[in-house]
Amino acid sequence: MRINPKISFLLPVYNSSEYIVTVVESVLQQNYENKKLEIILVDDCSNDDSLQKIEDLKSEYSEIIQIVKHKNNRGLAAARNSAIQVAQGEIYIFLDSDIAPAIDFLDRTLEIFKHSEIQGVVGKTLPAEGIKYDKFQKYLYEARRGARHLKECQPVPYQHFLYNITAVRAEAVRETGLFDTNIKEYGGEDTEYALRMARNFPEGLYFCPQLKGYHHHYRTLDKALDLYEIYGRENVPYLINKYPEMGKLYYYKYLKGPFFLRLIGQIVKSKPFRTLTKMIYKIMPAPLCYGAIRLLLASALLKGMAEKMDD
Question: For the whole model, what pTM was predicted?
Answer without folding.
Answer: 0.95
